[in-house]
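Researcher: Structure for this, please.
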Amino acid sequence: MLDTDLLRSIATQMMTGTVIEVNGRNLRVGRTSRQRLKTVRFTMNGREYQAIEQNPDKPSRWGQLAGAGHKIVQFKDVQTNKFVAVAVDGKVIEYGSRGRKGHPGAEQS
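Model: Predicted structure, token format:
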């Protein structure tokens, strides 16, 4: 189970500063080597995760939203190397069993 409040806090802090606070620890926000996207590694519930700013040049839905000015942060489980959630302008959407319900642009029935 993901702590969506913590993910929301990390995404917000990451997009506005160079240091974030997670569970009383200060973590430095770095940059990826190629695209210079913001990134930070953190521990949640005993597992290591990586938050990565969305590349606005990607043709994906998230890339298009980032290119349009939205703040998009992807969260990846470091051990499995799989993306587990995304934050869109502060709203966290978990991948997996919940599907993609509630993502921006989704039709609500």
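Researcher: Any notable elements?
Model: The first strand starts at residue 19 and ends at 22. Strands lie at 19-22, 25-28, 30-31, 38-44, 47-53, 72-77, 82-88, 91-94.
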